């Protein structure tokens, strides 16, 4: 079989999409080098380690285990070759701000009983909802996620239309969920995963009800060592395949075309036949390419809907925080106002919905003895004013809210505290407007409406990561790397693996 043995590739950025692409291209025979702006590999999946505490700074949910299994199987390996998994029970805990508390567990019958407590018939409705979610997941993943359909005609094909029959392609998540559940709290439970897609119930397509199959049926897992251990596993596998990595080497300009690229860096150019950018798409086009080499103009990026940014507190705390589960959500009884303050009238939320992650509930190695490691994430609008004074004020808002709604008083027990927000996302990850995730999954930014893997203006330049298809999230970025590599192989007349 033909290979990329004569090709050299530089991958800009070591997020999940870049690391994935590097593995696939190295496996195809290319000489692959990954250069990373920051001091560690992983992109947004960075780690913070200080005073015996360890935090995943970005992704912290291990969902869609089948995607990870398929990824490693492409290289005749398994996830367990690199890290071990624990099935979380509960999957997560929800505190509603009117005093209700709900645990979602691996026991579906127990969850159905919880739903019945809120609404008669809701248990059976949950079964029907999950059956539809499973159908959407299985058809959607195989025929629309793992296959990169980049043109409208790809969706007009009769076989594609047949596969798409019955999928919830139109309408919003809000309308879809309302068709099954009347109680607002049940609707919130079915919609919380929209946080991972960077959208709201009203602007995210109903197709993403497939995330409930991910949540309820496939389960929520924890890789020992956190998502950082997954990054280590992918990096180690890449090294076994021949990938070379350099940190602290930002790209400042992309020059050239196929067979003659120079990627400028502060320590000199990196020369390669092909370039894959895993840096944020808008940053790559607007900062690394001259105007005539960009696939999209400034108006395009100005007109996009960006996923939320976040206000994050990383806290090392004396003692236990037993009220909180490994994954805990705190939700206002009415959360529309919070989404409005992200997408419609951007401002710091006055009654926030937020997420607490306490990995020390599962992993003894992430905190010193007698202490807990946790972080708090509040989704906020990208582009908000972000000053030390605002952070200090909002930190107090969040700590007071946690105490009032979960019974967990943290303020007098904090021995380590770090903050991260809009300006940090912009400076550390070059993310436009300080978005934490990239382009939101609105209807006009889903599937073929996301930016392509191939540059339309520069032969030999490709893109990977959450701004491309299939989209946001660690599993989707793994698949993005596969799709980018397939584009490279196709352009070189090489049949991808079966």
* Number of separate domains: 3
Assign a percent range to the helix content. Answer: 25-40%
Provide the CATH architecture of the largest domain: 3-Layer(bba) Sandwich
What is the CATH class of the largest domain?
A: Alpha Beta
CATH names the topology of the largest domain as FAD/NAD(P)-binding domain
**Biggest sheet, strands in spatial order?**
7-6-15-16-17-14-18
Major sheet: size, sense and barrel closure? 7 strands, mixed
Q: Indicate the proportion of strand residues.
A: 15-25%
Total helix count? 17
Low-pLDDT windows of residues? 154-161
Overall pLDDT metric: 91
Instruction: Tell me the CATH superfamily of the largest domain.
Output: FAD/NAD(P)-binding domain
Cα separation of the termini:
13 Å
Number of DSSP strands? Answer: 19
Shape label: globular
Would you spell out the secondary-structure blueprint of this structure?
Layout: E1 8-12, H1 16-27, E2 31-35, E3 47-50, E4 53-56, H2 65-73, E5 85-87, E6 92-96, E7 101-104, H3 108-118, H4 122-145, H5 152-156, H6 158-164, H7 173-178, H8 184-191, H9 194-197, H10 210-218, E8 221-223, H11 227-241, E9 244-246, E10 253-255, E11 261-264, E12 270-272, E13 274-277, H12 281-288, H13 298-302, E14 309-318, E15 327-331, H14 336-343, E16 354-357, E17 371-380, H15 388-406, E18 414-420, H16 422-429, E19 461-463, H17 474-491
Parallel strand pairs: 1-2, 1-13, 2-9, 6-15, 13-19
Antiparallel strand pairs: 3-4, 5-8, 6-7, 10-11, 11-12, 14-17, 14-18, 15-16, 16-17
């Amino acid at each position: 079989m033909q290979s990329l043995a004569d090709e050299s590739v530089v991958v800009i950025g070591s997020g999940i999409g870049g690391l994935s692409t590097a593995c696939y291209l190295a496996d195809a025979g290319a000489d692959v080098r990954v250069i990373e702006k920051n001091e560690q590999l992983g992109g947004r999946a960075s780690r913070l380690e200080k005073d015996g505490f360890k935090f995943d700074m970005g992704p912290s949910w291990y969902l869609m285990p089948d995607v990870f299994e398929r990824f490693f199987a492409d290289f005749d390996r398994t996830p367990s070759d690199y890290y071990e998994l624990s099935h979380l029970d509960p999957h997560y805990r929800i505190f509603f701000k009117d005093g209700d508390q709900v645990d979602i567990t691996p026991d579906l019958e127990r969850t159905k009983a919880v739903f019945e407590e809120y609404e008669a018939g809701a248990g059976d409705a949950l079964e029907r909802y999950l059956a539809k979610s499973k159908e959407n997941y299985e058809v959607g993943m195989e025929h629309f996620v793992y296959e990169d359909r980049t043109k409208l005609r790809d969706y007009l094909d009769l076989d594609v239309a047949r596969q798409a029959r019955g999928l919830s392609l139109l309408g919003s998540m809000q309308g879809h969920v309302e068709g099954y559940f009347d109680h607002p709290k049940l609707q919130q439970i079915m919609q919380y995963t929209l946080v991972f897609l960077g959208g709201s119930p009203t602007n995210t397509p109903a197709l993403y009800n497939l995330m409930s199959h991910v949540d309820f049926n496939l389960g929520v897992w924890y890789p020992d060592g956190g998502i950082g251990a997954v990054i280590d596993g992918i990096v180690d596998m890449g090294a076994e395949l021949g990938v070379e990595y350099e940190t602290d080497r930002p790209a400042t300009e992309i020059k050239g075309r196929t067979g003659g690229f120079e990627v400028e860096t502060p320590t000199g150019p990196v020369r390669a036949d092909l370039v894959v950018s895993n840096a944020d798409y808008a940053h790559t086009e607007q900062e690394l390419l001259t105007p005539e080499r960009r696939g999209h103009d400034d108006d395009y990026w100005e007109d996009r809907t960006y996923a939320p940014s976040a206000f994050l507190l990383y806290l090392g705390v004396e003692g236990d925080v037993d009220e909180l589960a490994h994954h805990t959500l705190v939700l206002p009884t009415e959360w529309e106002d919070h989404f409005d303050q992200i997408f419609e009238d951007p401002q710091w939320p006055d009654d926030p919905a937020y997420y607490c992650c306490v990995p020390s509930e599962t992993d003894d190695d992430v905190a010193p003895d007698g202490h807990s490691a946790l972080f708090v994430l509040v989704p906020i609008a990208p582009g908000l004013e972000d000053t030390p004074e605002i952070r200090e004020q909002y930190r107090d808002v969040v700590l007071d809210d946690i105490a009032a709604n979960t019974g967990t008083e943290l303020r007098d027990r904090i021995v380590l505290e770090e903050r991260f927000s809009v300006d940090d996302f912009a400076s550390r990850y070059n993310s436009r407007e300080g978005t934490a995730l990239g382009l939101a999954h609105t209807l006009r930014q889903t599937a073929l409406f996301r930016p392509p893997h191939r540059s339309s203006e520069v032969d030999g330049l490709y893109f990977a990561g959450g701004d491309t298809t299939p989209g946001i999230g660690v599993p989707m970025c793994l698949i993005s790397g596969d799709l980018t590599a397939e584009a490279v192989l196709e352009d070189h007349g090489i049949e991808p693996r079966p």
